[in-house]
Design goal:
The chain has 750 residues and is of the alpha/beta class. The protein is built from 20 helices and 26 strands. The longest helix has 17 residues. The radius of gyration is 28 Å and the shape is globular. The chain starts with a helix and ends with a strand. It binds beta-D-glucopyranose. Beta-D-glucopyranose (BGC) binds next to loops.
Length: 750
């Protein structure tokens, strides 16, 4: 007691002397939310809890039947009450069939929130989620930027962040606080129909782009009504199936899984991603939705993720319907929830909460698991400020701002890769007479790809008003009189190749718009990687005219073009540049911009030779060697760049010494341009066969003609570690090689 009195006396004296008072401990916002969640949870009954864990698609509460909702869309008030009030459904997703106007979205969500907060006893607001993956692609008039594969080609994480901020604003303006993006699956199999939804094949690049996207979506405070919760997807091992087809079996050894598939997700967890969506596939014979080792041990314990884990579409059903690991739906729910799923994207029936309630009552799912899941869901709802404002209070006056179209246009320009430019066929003269031909010239669909206005992105009646496709943009650039358009072929079939040849004879140059139409998921599986035969025939027939030919490839994955590549003087790999892609492509063709995009994937030469850039030495053995059509990182400019003077700050390093790499980059041509400087490192000897090289740093710089810049990159030795014999991150001493451009320098790690 005396000691306490003495201490109090001492503090009082100190206060008098220096005016200091001990600050009362203010609970942090997180602590306050934790307290509120705990209090709310204590008041909830089991039905409230299992309802919170249920997510239905909008069809379920709409007039009509699931997958068959009539136009114009209307909510069904009886179904709405059944779902929200009777079954206490905590989350709703997506649109029914196609995009809606901003007004309709606001009306839908205001109604949903009114019923949830006033008619449901708990008053808990609904968490609405949507696939806003390249802009708010389900709200009419929203700005659409390049798909992730195109963003990766910009090598510009800051741009990705700005675009995600734009999406967050427009998503919240649609009253939706949660987007199912980014895709953090690593795009290492070019056959996969969702390759374009990824940031490409490289782990380092995809991690930087992914964390930037997450930061752009979430900002510093989710209560800010211009931010949304992000959803990393699809955890884990979705992108590399045995046969390259969507949602088919994957066999990925733990070593590869941890080294190539986990890091993009880890980077996003560290960047503060709030939610995660689980992979629909099965890996090593176990459906991921039933895999506790992945969903709990790896995700929660090793990776430290604390947010909400939502299933993918109907995937709990599929545990018994497709995968055959559960005997019925109830058994499947038991497995998935016990494995670590917090919310079920059910999505077209409301059996989930009923069966889950029974499972808890029968003691087959512990109450602690339910409380854990509901805690995560409620925490997010509090963090988003949904309890105070179930619909936003702010006015979204920036909707439709011109700066956003410009941002998307700049992104589209930066996302284009000039892969070939023989004899400087590009840029074209604006006085040229141009034949525009090919299946992808006269539509916005192949510029945008899937998840655009509807799921498959294929509804011609719903394209964004006022945006120009490639043909229209070229016509606007050089005048309709100078442009002749003949379709030539559809994607797979000849239309009028002869007419195209005839028109070519009267033209100075041919712009061939080739590639793919839109698709996503299973409908995008294809029997061959080759560019369809009809398109090949179009190229070959036109080549006979002897006119210069430039191909623009709009495609979600690299379709093989080795059989026609020699006929082409120029090749632009446009990937999926979005609604502004037409103008961006025309700008590139006519020299209004200087291309700077770089391939975020290896462009294969043949279907049997799909090798990523960071392959193993043995991948080059044999007559095929490593000879892709275009390498990862490839991309030409209208100027030339040279990197020189590569050096390190030491010859040897200990494991905590930063490795400083410096190099000079110079614009040696006659026009300004942007260059991406890439730093690769090779581990010369390692206990697990080392890849031939890995990208470890990059920077994008703008240089005026003749200008040069000195760049310094810092790499930590820990970044050179790999998953070793014990399946743990391992750093081994020995010799390494740093490569930039044509130069190499060695160092030793001691
Ligand atoms: C896709 C997800 C998507 C979800 C909701 C699924 O089929 O795999 O990427 O977020 O549907 O639309």
């Amino acid at each position: 007691m005396r000691r306490i009195l003495f201490l109090l006396g001492f503090l009082a004296a100190l206060t008098l002397l220096v005016g200091w008072t001990p600050e009362p401990a203010i609970p942090s916002e997180d602590q306050e939310i934790a307290k509120k969640v705990k209090e709310l949870l204590a008041k909830m009954d089991l039905m409230d809890k299992v309802g919170e864990m249920t997510q239905v698609t909008l069809d379920v509460i709409s007039v009509g039947e699931p997958y068959n909702v009539p136009d114009p869309h209307r909510l069904d008030s009886a179904k709405l009450r059944e779902a929200l009030v009777k079954y206490r459904v905590g989350s709703v997703l997506n649109c029914s069939g196609h995009e809606y106007s901003l007004e309709h979205w606001r009306e839908i969500i205001t109604t949903i929130q009114r019923i949830a907060t006033t008619e449901k006893e708990s008053g808990i607001p609904v968490l609405y989620g949507i696939d806003a993956i390249h802009g708010v692609n389900y709200t009419e008039g929203a700005n659409l930027h390049p798909q992730q594969i195109g963003l990766a080609a910009t090598f510009d994480p800051n741009l990705a962040k700005q675009l995600a901020q734009m999406t967050a604003y427009q998503c919240r303006a649609s009253y939706i606080p949660w987007t199912f993006a980014p895709v953090l699956d690593i795009g290492r199999d070019a056959r996969w129909p969702r390759l374009w939804e990824t940031f490409g094949e490289d782990v380092f690049l995809a991690s930087r782009m992914g964390e930037a996207f997450v930061q752009g979506f979430e900002g510093d405070d989710l209560k800010d009504e211009t931010q949304v919760a992000s959803c990393m997807k699809h955890f884990l091992g979705y992108s590399t199936t045995l046969r390259g087809k969507d949602r088919t079996q994957a066999w990925i050894p733990e070593r590869q899984l941890r080294e190539y598939f986990v890091p993009t997700f880890q980077a996003a967890v560290d960047a503060g991603a709030s939610t995660i969506m689980i992979c629909s596939g099965e890996m090593n014979g176990i459906p991921v939705h039933a895999n506790k080792a992945i969903l709990t041990d790896l995700l929660r314990k090793d990776m430290g993720f604390e947010g909400l884990a939502v299933s993918d579409w109907a995937d709990i059903h599929y545990l018994y319907q497709r995968h055959g690991v559960a005997k019925d739906y109830k058994d499947a729910i038991r497995m998935a929830v016990n494995a670590g799923i917090d919310m079920s994207m059910t999505p077209v029936d409301i059996e989930f909460p009923k069966l889950l309630k029974e499972l808890v009552e029968e003691g087959k799912v512990p109450m602690s698991r339910i409380d854990e899941a509901v805690t995560r869901i409620l925490t997010l709802k509090f963090r988003l400020g949904l309890f105070e404002n179930p619909t936003p209070k702010m006015e979204y006056t920036d909707w439709g701002a011109e700066e956003w179209s410009n941002l998307c246009l700049n992104a589209a320009r930066d996302a284009l890769v000039l892969a070939k430019n023989n004899d400087k066929v590009l840029p074209l003269k604006k006085t040229s007479r141009v034949l525009v031909t090919g299946p992808t010239a006269n539509s916005l669909i192949p510029l945008n790809g899937g998840w655009t206005h509807n799921w498959q992105g294929d509804d011609a009646s719903r394209q964004t008003k006022g945006k120009k496709n490639i043909l229209q943009a070229i016509q606007a650039e050089i005048g309709e009189g100078n442009v002749k358009y003949v379709q030539g072929t559809s994607i797979n079939d000849e239309v009028n190749i002869k007419a195209a040849v005839k028109a070519a004879k009267k033209s100075d140059v041919i712009v061939l718009c080739l590639g793919e139409m839109s698709y996503t998921e299973t409908p995008g599986d294809r029997p061959s990687m080759n560019l369809p035969l009809a398109q090949q025939r179009l190229v070959k027939a036109l080549a006979k005219t002897g006119k210069p030919m430039v191909a623009v490839m709009t495609e979600g994955r690299p379709r093989i073009i080795s059989m026609i590549e020699e006929e082409l003087d120029g090749i632009v790999i446009a990937l999926l540049p979005g609604d502004e892609g037409g103008i961006a492509i025309s700008d590139l063709l006519f020299g209004n911009i200087n291309p700077s995009g770089k391939l975020p994937i290896t462009y294969p030469r043949s279907s049997n030779d799909l090798i990523v850039y960071d392959h193993k030495g043995t991948d080059r053995v044999g007559p095929l060697g490593f000879s892709p059509q275009f390498e990862f990182g490839h991309g030409l400019s209208y100027t030339t760049f040279e990197t020189s003077g590569l050096k390190l700050n030491a010859k040897s390093y200990r494991k905590n010494d930063p490795i400083e790499v410096s190099v000079k980059v110079k614009n040696t041509g006659k026009v300004a341009g942007e260059e991406v400087v890439m730093v690769y490192v090779r581990d010369k000897v390692a206990s697990i066969t080392p890849p031939v090289k890995r990208l470890r740093a990059f920077d994008k710089v703008l240089l005026m003609a003749g200008e040069s810049k000195d760049l310094t990159f810092t790499i930590l030795p820990s970044e050179l570690s790999f998953i070793g014999v014990e399946n743990e991150w391992t750093l081994e001493e020995g010799m390494f090689e740093v490569m930039v451009g044509e130069e190499k320098v060695e160092f030793e790690l001691k």
